[in-house]
Each structure stands twice: as structure tokens, then as C-alpha cells.
Amino acid sequence: MIVVYEMDKEMQEMSPTEFEKWCLKIIKGYAETNKLQGFKIEHNKRIQGSDGTYQIDVYAEFMELGVKFKVLCECKKHRNSIKRSVISELYNRLISTSCQKGIMITTSDYQSGAIEYAKKHSIALIRVRKCNFEYLSHSSGEEKPNENDPFLYGEKLMPPYEAFDCIEQEKIYPTKAMIREIYNKMNEKIKEVLGIDINAE
Question: Binning pLDDT at 50, 70 and 90, where does residue 99 land?
């Protein structure tokens, strides 16, 4: 059996609720890959805060360093850019519910004021692009990655979909030859930008 998916097409056909559930699956996949201890995740969770009850699109918790971390994730399938007020509302929910981390995932863009506010208050902003999550704000306050970074060049060349052989659990597309070609192009970019030939003996 071969499963092929192209995220852009899927996104167009998803309802807002289906998008929330898709985000849950992606977050759950990351948690399983990183083997987070005590990981739990729920869709459409109602949480009691200090000033009322909140409905949360995706709620997750896990254990790290002997401490329980609680995460609120809001998922917005919007056409219009996300405003600062939407991010500040998520931050207020974090404070009210005593959760440690806020994540906003959207199919649209973020206004500059929203990005600035998120960086100041350690809210992770994620924009869905094809088969990738694009991080615009991290808890560490890092800036958006430089698009000309040669080490990210190969990732930009990857096709917007993947295919897996579900019986043998093997990725069959992109092929090894395609990945090798992309790797060679990435090396050329590294040599051009940094003056380093990693293939030189």
C-alpha cells in the first residue's frame, strides 16, 4: 500500500475542526518521535482557569525533568492574517490556566505585531506550508531562520509530498537518487556562500 499526501491540497479541503485534528496528529507524532514521558493530548479540551472556563483546540501535557508541562495549542484555518489580539488572548489563557506553553498554528500569515508580541511572551507561532511547519517564533526568542542559509537550502528543494511503503515502513519517494541530487546542490550552495567544499578530501 502506498500513501501519498500533498498538504496544500488537503488543507483546502479541511474544515476548521478537521484542521485542529490534523494539528493534533502532527504534535502527537513529534511527541512520539521524541519519546516524551507521560505524554497526553486531547482535542477540544475544556480547562478551568482563574477567571472562567476555556475551550482549547488542542491540549497536551508531558513530563520532563520531573515536572509536568502543560501546553495550550490554538489552531486557526484562516485566510486573513492573525492579529496581535489573537496571540494576546492565547497568552491570557496561559496565565489563567497556569499552563507553561502556548502554541498557535495557522494556515495564514501573522501580522508583524502578532509576531513581536509572541516573541516577547514566548508563544510559539507556526505556519503550515505544504508538508512543513514553519516556525516564526520560539520560546527561546530566536529570529526567523535566514532563507539564504545554505544548510536550509536542501530542505527548500524537497518536493511537497512524500510516499511511504506502509508494509515495509520505508519511504520510497523522494528516491535515493533525488535526495543525492539535492544533497549535491546543497553542497554547491555551501561552497558558494561559505567558501567551504565539504566534498574536498
Answer: very high
* Rounded Cα gap, residues 139 and 121, in angstroms: 8
- Answer yes or no: are the C-beta atoms of 72 and 99 closer than 8 Å: yes
User: What pTM, to 2 d.p., does this model score?
Assistant: 0.63
CA distances from 57 to 54, 91, 144 (A): 10, 14, 25
| pLDDT confidence bin for 36, thresholds 50/70/90 | confident
The yes or no reply on domain 2-144 and CATH 3.40.1350.10 is yes
Q: How far apart are CA 140 and CA 101, in angstroms?
A: 12
Residue extents of the structural domains in the chain: 2-144, 145-201
- Output phi, psi for 199, to 5 deg: -90, -10
**93 pLDDT more than 90:** yes
Calpha distance 83→69 (Å, rounded): 27
Q: How far apart are alpha carbons 170 and 25 in whole angstroms?
A: 20
Mean pLDDT of 66-78: 89
Per-residue confidence (pLDDT) for residue 176, from 0 to 100: 75
- C-alpha span between 74 and 7 (Å, rounded): 19
**Listing from the earlier edge strand, what are the strands of the sheet with 2-6?**
2-6, 161-165, 170-173
Alpha carbon 200 to chain centroid, angstroms: 35
